[in-house]
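Why does residue order matter? Because the sequence determines the fold. Keep that principle in mind as you read this record.
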Amino acid sequence: MNALLKNIVRTWTNNFEGLYKPASLYPLVALRIAFGFTMSAWGILMILSGRVSEVFSRQVIRFPYDGLEWLQPLPFWGMIIVFLLISVSAVLLAAGWFFRAAATVFTLLFAYVSFIDKASYLSYYYLVMLLAVMLTFSPAHRLFSIDLIRKPSLRVDYAPNWLLLVFKVQVIMVFVFAGMAKLNSDWLYSGIQVSLWLQDIAQAVGLNSSVIANNGWFAIGLSWLLVIFDFLLPHFLIDPKTSTRAFWTVVLVQMLAMILLPTGIFPLLVVLSCTIFLPAEKIHRLVSGISYFLFDVFQFKGDVFKPGGSYMLEFRRKRLLPTVALLFLAAQVMLPVVMYLNMGSFRWADTAFHFSWDVRINHHRNSLVFYKVDKATGSTIQISVDKFLTPIQQQRMSEDPIMVKSFIRQLKETPELATSEIEAYSCISVNGRAPDCITYSNETVSLLGDSSYE
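Structure:
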């Protein structure tokens, strides 16, 4: 018994000491650069594609978060400036130029545009904000950055292993919770979500979708492969022997997802996040070539861009910072797990789960119509929702009963509908089931059918 206790203590001690062993800062540098340039491109694309105007400048009615009703979108040119500042600050973050200020500006502005309206939320916004906050407080600018020109003493080549591990655990959560969201009968036993997605893709490219519908085994097999991928991939990413091959597997899978599914930049964000797992020596070789070029061309004094240093970052409070990081990660684990247990995988993986690993894996077909009811005659007139909401808002509202009720309340505040009775008829079909239909009448909601979704 004493020998067992000694082995446990020795193992714990060795692992604890391993958290403070030096780890190369190059993977964190790669993450900083990839994240910054990707989010800068995102900001520019939002402007050029017209999304800024569509999402923020054409709203008459908004769906604010509780307690954040005071957040208001700026006029059109104001929002354009906001997104330009997001793009510029992201470039400065990537270059490591006035890094702390740039990262702070980016984080605050991105949070601002994310919290203005529930309908503008996308699944990857939460991950962007988490990575932005973590980078802001990290030493990611203390190697291969322009800040070193201003202050060469900032340079460090190594940091405690726990610092890199925090970023790795953060990325692993994306895969684990995506796997959790798929642990339901629809995904595992019927593969209906994958089947419907494949049918939509087939129709989009002009193929016969009935072939997929008549061969359900293929969708089920692919569904199980995706679950296995989510749960097993982190093991291969974190193992230095297999991390490179696992990274290229992530690249392949996510690029296919970007091509086949309307997932925005989320696949690209997952890929760049996984750069934190790449072997430091491979990133070092890539950076070395760039470093020597800059060193020779600009003749920087000292070893600002010269690779191969040996400076080690030493934190004064060696136990406080790892404890704060552990609490930060623990909160992110506890909240989704508690929500998962309380709501079940269907609701946990859907629109009710804003800003806490919203993983949209369910396939929806929705219809939602609003009517103005004449109390005296009982006649109804359909309300043109286009006057009040953008297409994006309408789509998100059709999937969320809370947003429907919020819209009815706000319609009652408009002069032309203040004295009218308003009704809404909503039908939602989830994963090919028969639609569940709900009638809303001002503040009263009556369920017209059993809902296997809820």
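The longest strand covers residues 364-373.
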